Amino acid sequence: MLKVGKYRCAFALLVFSVIACFSAPSVQLDTVQLAMVKQKIHEGVASERTLAAYKDLLGNAEQLLTMENPTVMDKSIIPPSGNQHDYLSIGRYWWPNPETKDGLPWIRKDGKTNPETQTDAVDRNRLSDMTNGIKNLSLAYYFSEDERYAQKTISIIKTWFLDEDTLMNPNLEFAQSVPGNPEGRPFGILDGRAIASIIPDAIDMLSTSPNWTADYDLKMTRWLSDYLKWLTESDLGKEEGEQENNHGSWYRFQVASLAHYLGDKPLVKKTVELTQQSLDRQLNSNGGQIHELARTRSFFYSCFNLEALTNIAVFGDEAGMDMWDFESEEGKSLALAINYLTPVIGGQDWAHASLHGADVSYIVPILARMSAHTDANEYSKVLTKAIAILVKKERETGSMNKVLQELSLKTTIGY
């Protein structure tokens, strides 16, 4: 039985996706909460949902044991550099130009994914397979302590990041490229967000495995340091950092995440300050996100941007900067932006373009973070309503919601 009401008195403890109070330099995971979930699983007192999520996690991990390790060397399109080790992807919303004989240069159709951009001819799917595989296997290892999962995680890491014959160079010079345009694009840096959010925590969880060596740790620190240097010093990185929409937010998340993991506290503080300053340029007076509302999937992108902003706010805690309650001179704040979205949970229609509707799942992680990091009880109440909507849909469809399922493995709160 799914009991949503149990959330009401416990949301102050909730942490989903990110928190900054770890003994180790974790990025996205609360090690204290994970330890409590692990204990409940092994004592057989975890909630029905948590046990089901754990079973699915182990099932996925078993399948991943036989997965061929992804590598950038397997793409069939060679990057403009001529170096197969350079990551290459094509912007998902770009299509052949019907006005030219050769279809070049491709043109943009916002919100409409071109299937040709998602093939194995480029690296996007392999990057996703790599990060998702590492995420699932490392978490399965943490909960089960089954060394097979650690060994496979390490094997994937070695193939993608460390082995000279198969590694990815620590840059995104040719990410989200456009056929017919030989120049690199800053927007492809968005592809790297999974590396910054998943890999540091996976390394943290692998630290207890006898198969994870000091040499691996040193080499991964070097790779992540080189990638952070590229982000902050390259022309493309600097240009992406100037973007005023979700691209700029996710760029700053990557910088803050890697700086946090590598112990560069001044850079963390600087990045949080830049994020605070960006709010005036991102939000209108009502809290609507100017650039995201112009998109054809406006609700998704509004939540997508807020996911990055609230992730950065967690790093602000470490830097002694309270971004949760921060308000600019123009009155712009995270709360203002979130409050612009929450009427949807109460049944109000979303007044902007949204190709796939206003899916409440998108906002749940954001509300969970706000509820955990602020004293405003309103977010706990709204989150309870949002979860109730998702649980109702679960009962109607007979399938568990992925957001709630993942949440159940990262917090001890039952529902």
From TrEMBL:
A cellular-component GO term for this protein: periplasmic space
Pfam families xref list: Alginate_lyase (PF05426)
Transmembrane residue ranges: none
Lyase among keywords: yes
Keyword ATP-binding in annotation: no
Regions annotated as coiled coil: none
Naturally occurring in which organism (per UniProt): Kriegella aquimaris
Signal peptide positions on this chain: 1-20
InterPro entries given in the database record: Alginate_lyase_dom, Chondroitin_lyas
Name assigned to this protein: Alginate lyase
MF terms (GO), sorted A to Z: lyase activity
Domain of life (superkingdom): Bacteria
Gene3D superfamilies: Chondroitin AC/alginate lyase (1.50.10.100)
Domain Alginate lyase positions: 72-349
Keywords: Lyase, Signal
